[in-house]
Amino acid sequence: MKTYPFLKVLIKLYWLLLLIVLGLFTVTITNTFLSEETDKTIAVTTTSKTNFSTISPELLGSVAAGKKLFRTNCATCHNKNMKSDMTGPALAGVRARWSDYPESDLFAWIKNATKLIEAGHPKAVEIYTKWNKVPMTAFNNMTEAEVTAILDYIDSVK
Ligand code: HEC
């Protein structure tokens, strides 16, 4: 048969063409799949950026941090209902009671009451005398943010 070699070439070409088409098809599918994967990765990254666990307690809410600090440092002497006296006075409305003085005085009291009493601060001496000179623990290492958080928490308890 004279046409046989020609047909053989034609069949070979046919297979080659089919492989090219299949190859292109595979590449297109793979690309679509990959770009979808990339989109998913971006979406996950964006979500984790707003994940609450990455936000510091101060930003999440001073009150939540303040509650924790109050429970561990102050609740042994100050009632957590803020209304009844215990070893120390009820703390509800404490900011208002100190409002004749700059708030830094109240901060100074919480950080080191004895220091303020010894310095002769009128408000400090007044409470100390009223409370039969029971000394309050000093919290020298407490930061401004932590004291603010505790005071915000005290204000939030109704
Ligand atoms: C060992 C007990 C004790 C602990 C712990 C304690 N306090 Fe006191 N606190 C007192 C006493 C007692 C007074 C009353 C004044 C005095 O006698 O020194 C007082 C007074 C105060 C006052 C003044 C109240 C007013 O009416 O003006 C504030 C504010 C205060 N405490 C905040 C705190 C905070 C905040 C903490 C925790 C970080 C804390 N205290 C921990 C015993 C304590």
What do you see in this structure?
- The N and C termini lie far apart (about 105 Å).
- With about 160 residues, this protein is mainly alpha-helical.
- The protein has two domains: about 50 residues; about 100 residues, Cytochrome c-like domain (Cytochrome Bc1 Complex, Chain D, domain 2).
- It has eight helices and no strands.
- Helix content is about 65%, strand content about 0%.
- Heme C (HEC) binds next to helix 4, helix 5 and helix 7.
CATH class of the largest domain: Mainly Alpha
Q: Outline the low-pLDDT stretches.
A: 40-53
Written as H for each helix and E for each strand, in order along the chain, the element string is HHHHHHHH
Instruction: State the share of residues found in helices, binned by percent.
Output: 55-70%
Q: By CATH's scheme, which homologous superfamily of the largest domain applies?
A: Cytochrome c-like domain
Rg from alpha-carbon coordinates: 36 Å
Mean pLDDT: 84
Question: Which secondary-structure class do the elements indicate?
Answer: mainly alpha
Question: How is the secondary structure organized here?
Answer:
Layout: H1 4-49, H2 57-60, H3 62-73, H4 94-97, H5 103-111, H6 113-118, H7 122-130, H8 144-156
Helix pairs in contact: 3-8
Provide the descriptors you would attach to this structure in a database record.
single chain; 158 residues; mainly alpha; Cytochrome Bc1 Complex, Chain D, domain 2; binds heme C
